[in-house]
Amino acid sequence: MWRRAGNVLNLSLANSLKGNEKWQNKRRIIYLLSEIKNG
Q1: DSSP-derived 3-state class of residue 39
Q2: Residues 18-30: pLDDT tens digits?
Q3: What are the structural domain ranges in the chain?
């Protein structure tokens, strides 16, 4: 039972990290686009 709970926790943690990565990539792209516009 505990192991299953740990697996679920690890999965949700991994998913949130992936989501965070995507968000950071989006921010980087937006930043680059604004730099190009202002450049």
Answers
A1: coil
A2: 998 999 999 999 9
A3: 1-39
